[in-house]
Amino acid sequence: MSFPNPLVLFNNHFVGHRRAYPWRTRLAVAADLGFDGYEFHPLEPHDDQNWDQATAAYRASGLHLAGMYIVAKGITDDEFPRFDAEVTRAKQIIDRLAALDPHAFVNFTIFSNPAGQSTPDYRDAGSAQAEPRHWERAALMLREIDAHLAARGLTGNLYNHIWFMIDTPAAQLRALREAGAKVLRPGLALFHAFFHLGVPDLPDVLAQPGMEQLDYFAVLNGWPKPAEPFRTRPLDDGNIDVAAALGLLWSRGYRGPIVSQAYDLGGDPYETARRARDYLRDVHARFERNPALNPFA
């Protein structure tokens, strides 16, 4: 049986560690390895050179699903004066993405941290420190983004990231509910959910009302470090049981995109992408061959 989800390669397979891969190579790697799509980040709205190169590379690659990770600010008191500019920037990125791929998706999050700093315990930062005015601003921003996605015919989801205003699935669900979102849906970054001690285990996360609309799942593994929050690792080498997470999602009928991330892994991006692809396909084949191997079958 073929893999049941669109496989998407995230841009961070190619950035950092003294590397500067051109867009044509990034997209060619994704296509050569059999990925279905590519998630871009970052592309600012007025960077014509990069947009032109990315668009040409995407159209030449044969990939059929484009995504864009958009990170916005403007929710904290210090950032609020730039709120309108941040909304305008996000809408302009959405416009350019729609021109690149009229069926693209937007992976959206709000960077603003009401705690004012990145605390060692994530439970002391992000949405946990949000006051009513922060939630109101978040809802207003999401309402604007949701309406713009609807106008452009694109889909979208929220993204949970430690330290951010949108840092947990619960924060996503509250923000979407208060915004009255019609297009935006919850997404899940497994890495950020696992290392945030305020996030329950995955079965309990997915049992929350609203999570049945999950429309994005990003995978990356990692180890905790004594002096730092974590160290990212390939999918088959870390604390996170990625296979069980996939088994749970598939048992619930999830057919949205699965996005391979590689933040800070470094090395040969072709090999990090190939290793992720092979692991994901192997897990699915394992469960198909013997459903009893899936703890959530």
TrEMBL record:
GO molecular function: isomerase activity
Record keyword Methyltransferase present: no
Residues of the Xylose isomerase-like TIM barrel domain: 27-282
Entry keywords, A to Z: Isomerase
Xref: Gene3D superfamilies: Divalent-metal-dependent TIM barrel enzymes
Stored InterPro entries: IolE/XylAMocC-like, Xyl_isomerase-like_sf, Xyl_isomerase-like_TIM-brl
Domain of life of the organism encoding this protein: Bacteria
Protein name: Sugar phosphate isomerase/epimerase
